[in-house]
């Protein structure tokens, strides 16, 4: 629908994302909210091929993007000379923005904060399973009731967080509020000791974190310096019976080294991301009883994706009224974000 055609003073906004999910991200009620601030170009819905930029893109000042939106290359941006803001109703914008976006001075916002909540909740569930050695216990069940040495309590386990990202911080905050008595470690080169203490954790180097943690949970962005960060040497430092959780990016962990550690029975792993992604059919990690692989589902799913739309719509409202954007992404910060 073209909202408020009677208000030529309102900026034109276009929505470009996979048409199979746009109705979930931006349902009618959110489009009505948008109509108070912008003239929204018709939104394509259904299971048609991925949405492309509509004719109104040439007049658009605001792009509401999401999963499936093509990369904003110089050629694409040449077709939108009036574009001033991109509100991304999803998480990372690394695959969306090109240097041309920054060179044009286009404002960029991401709904990554809205997507972080589901990932934090998912990670907390995995930590609860991990501290109980759930996969190992389940695999032993058929052979008889597990011996007492395999039934240690979950309280008091040391949990190591790799990366003080918004999700890493959310996990730390939730664990700190819980009464499970976890000891919390954090490794992140951009966080000071004082800030780490305020997060309720102890700052340590990665090697020490691996040596001391019963559960290692990965929340770092994928950067050149974090690719393969958890390699054979680091994984080998995690104590026997330890657990690796990865809801960040698969390439942060050395897949071959992790496969070796899990195949030996020494470590458990809960992986929502892998390298490669997806794993090829028949990969050992898919059949090991002490490994759980899920298909990148920690973020917003189903009705949860509406929170991404709400966030983007609120950002449009803030931008139109001249308020600071809560999800603003800068060129400088992007290199350190997920």
UniProtKB/TrEMBL annotation:
Ranges where the D-isomer specific 2-hydroxyacid dehydrogenase NAD-binding domain occurs: 125-298
Native species: Streptomyces roseochromogenus subsp. oscitans DS 12.976
Lineage, broadest ranks: Bacteria, Bacillati, Actinomycetota, Actinomycetes, Kitasatosporales
One Pfam family this sequence matches: 2-Hacid_dh_C
Molecular-function annotations in GO: glyoxylate reductase (NADPH) activity; hydroxypyruvate reductase [NAD(P)H] activity; NAD binding
Annotated protein name in UniProt: D-isomer specific 2-hydroxyacid dehydrogenase NAD-binding domain-containing protein
GO cellular component: cytosol
Top-rank taxon: Bacteria
Keywords linked to the UniProt accession: NAD, Oxidoreductase
């Amino acid at each position: 629908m073209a909202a408020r055609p009677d208000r030529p003073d309102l900026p034109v906004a276009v929505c470009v994302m996979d048409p199979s999910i746009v109705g979930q991200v931006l349902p009618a009620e959110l489009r009505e909210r948008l109509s108070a601030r912008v003239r929204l170009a018709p939104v394509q819905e259904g299971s048609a091929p991925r949405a492309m930029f509509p004719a109104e893109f040439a007049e658009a000042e605001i792009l509401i993007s999401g999963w499936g939106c093509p990369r904003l290359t110089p050629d694409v941006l040449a077709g939108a000379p009036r574009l001033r803001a991109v509100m991304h109703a999803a998480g990372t914008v690394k695959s969306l923005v090109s240097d041309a976006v920054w060179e044009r001075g286009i404002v960029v916002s991401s709904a990554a904060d809205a997507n972080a909540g589901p990932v934090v909740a998912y990670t907390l569930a995995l930590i609860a399973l991990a501290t109980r050695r759930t996969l190992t216990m389940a695999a032993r069940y058929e052979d008889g009731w597990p011996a007492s040495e395999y039934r240690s309590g979950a309280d008091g386990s040391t949990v190591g967080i790799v990366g003080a990202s918004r999700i890493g911080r959310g996990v730390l905050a939730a664990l700190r509020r819980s009464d499970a008595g976890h000891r919390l470690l954090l490794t992140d080169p951009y966080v000071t000791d004082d800030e780490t203490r305020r997060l309720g954790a102890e700052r340590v180097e990665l090697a020490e974190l691996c040596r001391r943690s019963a559960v290692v949970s990965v929340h770092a962005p994928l950067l050149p310096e974090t690719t393969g960060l958890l390699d054979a040497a680091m994984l080998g430092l995690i104590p026997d019976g330890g657990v690796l959780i990865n809801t960040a990016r698969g390439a942060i962990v050395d897949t071959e080294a992790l496969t070796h550690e899990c195949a030996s029975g020494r470590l458990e792993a809960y992986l929502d991301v892998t390298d490669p992604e997806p794993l090829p059919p028949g990969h050992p990690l898919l059949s090991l009883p002490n490994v759980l692989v899920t298909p990148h589902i920690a973020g917003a799913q189903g009705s949860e994706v509406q929170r991404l739309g709400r966030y983007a719509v609120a950002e449009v409202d803030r931008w139109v009224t001249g308020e600071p954007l809560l999800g603003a992404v800068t060129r400088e910060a992007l290199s350190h974000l997920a």
